[in-house]
Amino acid sequence: MADKSMKAMQEEVDAYISQFKEGYFSPLAMLARMSEEVGELAREVNHQFGEKPKKSTEADNSIELELGDILFITICFANSLGIELTEAHDRVMHKFQTRDADRWTKKNT
Question: 41 Cβ partners below 8 Å, 6+ apart?
Answer without folding.
Answer: 63, 66, 67, 69, 70
